[in-house]
Write a structure and sequence with these properties.
globular; alpha+beta; binds ligand EPS; Chorismate synthase, AroC fold; about 425 residues
Length: about 425
């Protein structure tokens, strides 16, 4: 997808994280406060380590914005790492007096990028790898995603997430109403809408900490209301589901991504997978559709087959011109294109590799068996990863938006967007 581009730079304990966004249209009102709110959301979550006590992530906008509005030029962002103060000698930019060998990390952690990176980049010091492999860089992704989110917000689109599993504990009581789902997730210590599951998850995290272990889990991201017609079926790299999978899979520790019903589709016959098509031009807008047969799905994900209409600039629009589904097992995407239903994706995160009761490893220096090294880390970061997941989904959808409706200014996009919505109506 070529609509938007971003690059980020920065080591976990270096001076700062930086980011450059290219392709944002001019004339978008940008709230710095809203970016900082997203950064604060990423820092929360029961089970995080000591680093989050040190940092209070705030973005500094360096370019591309004037008088609160984007200029259409590259947007430069910076987040300072407060912790750099404590790492100035081991992360010094200039060459140290000694050759730095005594500070080298030589006991690679299974599951982290340590060994693979040492072999690839021909270094005996895993710090040269782990500093960038650390999920610290996701703070900048969240800032960048928050800019994309503000573009989507301009067109009435919301992106939110909730945690549906930590370790083997699965949330079951998930509200079908999305406003309630979001509010409950936002107020949960682990971003989970099921209150009882939240309590259990907290206990599991405590037990894992006690045992010197770590935990993974699964989160879901929902983007809605979503107009039909984003992405394309014509090329592998323009399929929106493929783009979302790549973006989510690129978040550190993500091992699987599902769109809609995901893996479950493989187990069901076609008649219980595909979302039947209905049409009702006069159907009242913002209506929650009929209860559907998706008991399992509803329980585990909050999917309700709900159909919501797009409300844009005070006028009411249908997201697919009057076509709608009573179920959303496809997660809002068919043949790589949005079909007018909400985008629903899930990602599974593996447990964080740093264990305070470490696994076996081999010392890179003398090749003797050793316990893996220990770096300060989290017991679980699934709630934080869900916020990063939102950022990546917002980014991909905003990128698809730019590709479809793009122009140099938001005003230009508005005209094209409006024309597209009208064109959907038969
Ligand atoms: C992170 C900051 C890091 C880690 C975590 C994510 O801080 P520090 O290494 O100073 O404790 O807490 O990174 C990892 C889980 C990892 O495996 O590298 C952050 O800002 O999210």
């Amino acid at each position: 997808m070529t609509g938007l581009r971003f690059l980020s730079a920065g080591e976990s304990h270096g001076p700062a994280l930086s980011g450059i966004i290219e392709g944002m249209p001019a004339g978008l009102s940008l709230s710095i406060e809203a970016i900082n709110q997203e950064l604060a959301r990423r820092q929360r979550g029961y089970g995080r380590g000591g680093r989050m006590q040190i940092e209070t992530d705030k973005v500094r906008v360096l370019s591309g914005v004037r008088f609160g509005q984007t200029l259409g030029s590259p947007i430069g962002l910076q987040i300072v790492n407060r912790d750099f103060e404590n790492w100035q000698s081991s992360m010094a930019i200039s060459a140290p007096a000694s050759n730095g060998v005594e500070a080298a990390v030589t006991r690679p952690r299974p599951g982290h990028g340590d060994l693979a990176g040492m072999l690839k980049y021909r270094t005996g010091d895993a710090r040269n790898i782990l500093e960038r492999a650390s999920a610290r860089e996701t703070a900048m992704r969240v800032a960048i995603g928050a800019v994309a989110r503000q573009l989507l917000c301009h067109f009435g689109i919301k992106v939110f997430s909730h945690v549906i599993q930590i370790g083997d504990l699965v949330a079951t009581e998930i509200p079908a109403d999305w406003e309630e789902l979001e509010e409950r997730a936002e107020n949960s210590l682990v971003r989970c809408a099921d209150e009882r599951a939240t309590e259990e998850m907290v206990k599991r995290i405590d037990a894992a900490r006690e045992a010197g272990d770590s935990l993974g889990g699964i989160f879901e991201v929902i983007a809605w209301p979503m107009p039909a017609g984003l992405g394309s079926h014509v090329h592998w790299d323009r399929r929106l589901d493929g783009c979302l999978a790549q973006a989510l899979m690129s978040i550190p520790a993500i091992k699987a991504v599902e769109i809609g019903l995901g893996r479950e589709t493989a187990l069901r016959p076609g008649s219980q997978v595909h979302d039947e098509i209905f049409f009702d031009k006069e159907e009242p807008l913002s209506k929650t559709s009929e209860a559907n047969d998706e008991e399992t799905l509803r329980k585990s994900s909050g999917m309700s087959g709900r159909r919501d209409a797009l409300l844009w600039q005070g006028e009411k629009w249908l997201t697919a011109g009057g076509f709608y589904r009573k179920t959303n097992r496809a997660g809002g995407i068919e043949a790589g294109m949005t079909n007018g239903e909400a985008i629903m994706v899930r990602a599974a995160m593996k447990p964080i590799p740093t264990l305070s009761k470490p696994l076996d490893s081999v010392d890179f220096d003398d090749l003797r068996p050793v316990a893996a090294g220990i770096e300060r880390s989290d017991v679980t970061a699934v709630p934080a990863a869900a916020v990063v997941g939102e950022a990546m989904v917002a980014w991909v959808v905003a990128s698809a938006f730019m590709e479809k409706f793009g122009g140099d200014s938001v005003t230009e996009m508005e005209v094209r967007y409006r024309e597209h919505l009208l064109s959907l109506c038969p």
